[in-house]
């Protein structure tokens, strides 16, 4: 027997095959084995056309992608300390969530609508707390940057574990860059702050936030309230937190579904989370505020993100 060019096997008569039912098997290198049940009648000849198909080569497995930030197999809420600013950071895994006005939240403004699905395609590290006075002092000493003006109602110059406040967007960007990171995007911030929750807050407001009713008109030491399910503290209340995006009043209807970066340009930058000064209607995970990036707000603070692994 020899293989033909079309993959068929040409063979001569096979002598002395007894009458009855037989299984015919034909094989050749690089071909799938041919099988057929054949009935042989005494005194008659049978011709079988055995077409041998090519063997399918195994499909190569796709290469395993190594994240550019150098981490693998991390779970949500994993905590590491950043040796540069000596603050703790939490691992935020990639995922999909509904961004914008939470279901049943009657306090939403037009700029929080429509709620829309967003995919965060890359994991990242997020500051477990707002940047503290102690960390900002370390930055100021290292870079020669000026400390923010101390508000009359604040004692943060005497308490290192209070969140820094009174920083502009420019200040916040400079700090995060020094610490080896960046400001989170608005979508990353809300995704991390929600931590899988679809509610306006991940718990009762007095349990999770310092705001106008319980804050005593001042900031409080970080990490005193209950953290969200991903181990982030004070995402609501205490200080507003700058994010990277330009503010767009009507950005949501046109927002990309994957990793939205915010508008290409603008005059104001976005802040999130509310502060000690704000009423409950403003201390919600979807609420959006804005300010000139060169201007410091007396209750504006910062929380950094970073993509690279933390040693």
What does this structure look like?
The chain is of the alpha+beta class. It has 2 domains: 2-51, no CATH class; 79-306, paralog of FGE (formylglycine-generating enzyme) (Alpha-Beta Complex). Helix content is 11%, strand content 20%. It has 4 helices and 15 strands. The strands form 5 sheets. A 4-stranded antiparallel β-sheet has the order 6-7-10-15, with no helix packed on it. A 4-stranded mixed β-sheet has the order 13-12-11-14. The longest helix is centred in the middle third of the chain and has 11 residues, at 133-143. The protein is elongated and about 115 Å long.
Q: What class would the helix/strand composition place it in?
A: alpha+beta
Element order, helices and strands?
EEEEEEEEEEHHHHEEEEE
Counted beta strands: 15
Q: In CATH's first tier, which class of the largest domain applies?
A: Alpha Beta
Return the domain count.
2
What labels describe this entry?
four-stranded mixed β-sheet; 2 domains; disordered N terminus; about 300 residues; paralog of FGE (formylglycine-generating enzyme); alpha+beta; about 20% strand
Topology, pairings included?
Elements: E1 2-3, E2 8-10, E3 20-26, E4 34-40, E5 50-51, E6 79-81, E7 88-92, E8 95-99, E9 116-120, E10 124-127, H1 133-143, H2 169-178, H3 186-194, H4 205-208, E11 240-246, E12 269-272, E13 288-291, E14 300-302, E15 305-306
Parallel strand pairs: 11-14
Antiparallel strand pairs: 1-2, 2-5, 3-4, 6-7, 7-10, 8-9, 10-15, 11-12, 12-13
């Amino acid at each position: 027997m020899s293989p033909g060019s079309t993959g068929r096997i040409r063979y001569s008569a096979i002598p002395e095959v007894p009458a009855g039912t037989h299984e015919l098997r034909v094989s050749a290198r690089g071909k799938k084995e041919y099988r057929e049940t054949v009935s042989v009648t005494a005194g008659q000849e049978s011709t079988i056309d055995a077409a041998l198909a090519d063997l399918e080569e195994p499909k190569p497995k796709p290469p395993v992608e190594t994240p550019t930030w150098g981490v693998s197999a991390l779970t949500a809420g994993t905590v590491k300390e950043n040796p540069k600013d000596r603050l703790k950071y939490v691992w935020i895994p990639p995922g999909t969530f509904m961004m914008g006005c939470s279901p049943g939240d009657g306090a939403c403004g037009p700029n929080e609508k429509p709620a829309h699905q967003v995919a965060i395609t890359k994991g990242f590290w997020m500051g477990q707390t707002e940047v503290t006075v102690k960390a900002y002092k370390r930055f100021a000493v290292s870079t020669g940057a000026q400390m923010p003006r101390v508000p009359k109602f604040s004692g943060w110059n005497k308490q290192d574990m209070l969140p820094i406040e009174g920083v502009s967007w420019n200040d916040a960007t400079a700090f995060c860059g020094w610490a080896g990171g960046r400001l989170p995007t608005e979508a990353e911030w809300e995704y991390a702050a929600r931590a899988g929750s679809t509610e306006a807050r991940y718990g009762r407001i007095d349990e999770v936030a310092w705001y106008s009713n319980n804050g005593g008109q001042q900031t409080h030491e970080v990490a005193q309230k209950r953290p969200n399910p991903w181990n982030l503290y004070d995402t609501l209340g205490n200080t507003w937190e700058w994010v990277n995006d330009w503010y767009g009043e009507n950005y949501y209807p046109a927002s990309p579904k994957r990793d939205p970066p915010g508008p290409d340009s603008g005059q104001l930058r976005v802040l999130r989370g509310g502060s000690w000064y704000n009423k409950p209607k403003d201390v919600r995970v979807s609420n959006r505020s804005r300010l000139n990036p060169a201007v410091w707000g007396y209750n504006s603070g910062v929380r950094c993100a970073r993509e690279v692994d933390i040693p």
